[in-house]
Design brief:
With about 400 residues, the chain is of the alpha/beta class. About 40% of the residues lie in helices and about 15% in strands. It binds pyridoxal-5'-phosphate.
């Protein structure tokens, strides 16, 4: 069992394709034909940590499932504050932390709180489509600036050139989905300086921060108090602890004024919206008791990243970058006349492997010509997927 990576929790035997076929939606096992391997949405195939399941069982035992506090469970807020202080070096007061029902919702809430019709917000691309959706939901316009797809570096001159009075916020995705790159200290400082100069809100989506292989992740909120004050950090437990189905995440704010604005916009006090108590119980257990599970998961992922890079490099159809974070690869297509979508359609049909294409719909314009591969599965499944791809592409 342990032969794959030294940890039975992340062996092929630990996961159940039968259960995944019933439960894993969002372009994954439950949505593809039998026989297709989905390396699509960024959601692990492995069961969650036992500590999380135990906490949920224990909470359910007395059978009371009343309304919870509208601003979130105090123990969850404390766990988040401790997590951000000990692992990200940012100190947050619990009263400035708002549990929400997913990082996706947090992006929408942030956009709705800070942007109005006619405003503009900067997004660094390629990046997940959620950023654009959130900003447009608030009635604002997206301005994009391209990251260097090999290094993940920003182009501060290009960003500056697009600034005007209407720009009210900059959204960053650090580490970046789909590039699998962290933002450097130099770039974070430039973004911080830009935000101060132009009085921008910084919305930093750090949901991938725990999946970093070289300790290079830096939260922009850790730079200084002035930057922390104008930043809201968004995070969640879908990527690090595989809790996507529980829809739980959180927002950390630098001060009471910003917290109050977000809370008011959230309508959580009205009971119309909000995060389930059971999800917060699970998330609290993850942050307080899931550390060992997460370290083992990271170790497995790092070895799957190296294996995936080896296999993809051998295929000669892809130009790789060197991702240091996330469990995503974003190779550029070589030697093909197919665009990203056609290439993915071809692999789905001929190889039975589902991937996410680059292109405007998913990761903004400059992502065309790339494909995204999610490798948070077992070595056995990855090997089968890459064998199929190699075989099919060899016949191109
Ligand atoms: C950068 C980023 N933000 C947010 C999300 C959504 O997270 P959640 O499941 O908490 O809504 C994802 C999921 O892929 C993501 O990659």
């Amino acid at each position: 069992v342990a032969k794959e990576n030294g940890n039975a929790l992340f062996s092929h035997e630990a996961l159940s394709i039968t259960v995944l076929r019933e439960r894993a939606y969002n372009y994954r096992w439950a949505t593809v034909d039998k026989g297709v391997i989905p390396l699509t949405a960024a959601d692990p195939d492995f069961p969650v940590a036992e500590e999380i399941l135990n906490a949920m069982r224990e909470y359910l035992q007395p059978g009371v499932l009343s309304y919870g506090p509208p601003s979130g469970l105090p123990e969850f807020k404390e766990a988040i504050a401790h997590w951000y202080f000990t692992t990200k070096n940012v100190e947050y007061k619990t009263q400035h932390i708002l549990p929400v029902d997913s990082a996706a919702f947090a992006l929408f809430l942030a956009a709705k709180t800070f942007l109005k019709k006619g405003d503009k917000a900067i997004v660094l691309e390629p990046v997940d489509f959620l950023f654009r959706r959130a900003i447009e939901y608030a009635g604002a316009t997206v301005i994009t600036s391209s990251l260097n797809k090999k290094t993940g570096e920003i182009n501060i001159l290009d960003i500056e050139a697009q600034m005007d009075q209407k720009v009210k916020a900059i959204f960053i995705c650090n580490p970046n989905n789909p590039l699998g790159k962290t933002l450097s200290l130099k770039d974070l400082k430039s973004i911080g300086a830009l935000a101060i100069k132009h009085n921008l809100h910084i919305i930093s989506d750090e949901i991938w921060a725990d999946i970093c292989y070289d300790n290079s992740f830096i939260s922009i909120a850790s730079l200084n108090e002035e930057i922390k004050n104008r930043t809201i950090v968004i995070s969640g437990l879908s990527k690090n602890f595989a809790l996507a189905g529980l829809r739980v995440g959180y927002i950390c704010t630098g001060n009471q004024r910003v917290y109050d604005k977000l809370f008011e916009t959230s309508h959580f006090a009205s009971t119309a919206f909000g995060v389930s108590t059971l999800s917060q119980i699970a998330a609290t257990a993850a942050l307080t008791k899931g550390g060992l599970w997460l370290s083992a998961f990271l170790k497995h992922l790092e070895s799957m990243r190296d294996y995936s890079l080896l296999r993809l490099n051998a295929m000669k159809d892809f130009e790789m970058n060197a991702p240091n974070s996330t469990y995503l690869l974003f190779p550029k297509l070589k030697n093909t006349k197919r665009n990203s979508e056609e290439f993915c359609d071809y692999l789905l049909k001929e190889a039975g492997v589902a991937l996410i294409p680059g292109g405007e719909k998913w990761f903004e314009k400059s992502s065309e010509g790339h494909i995204r591969i999610c490798y948070s599965t077992s070595h056995t499944i990855l090997k089968e997927a890459f064998d199929r791809m190699e075989h099919t592409l060899g016949r191109l």
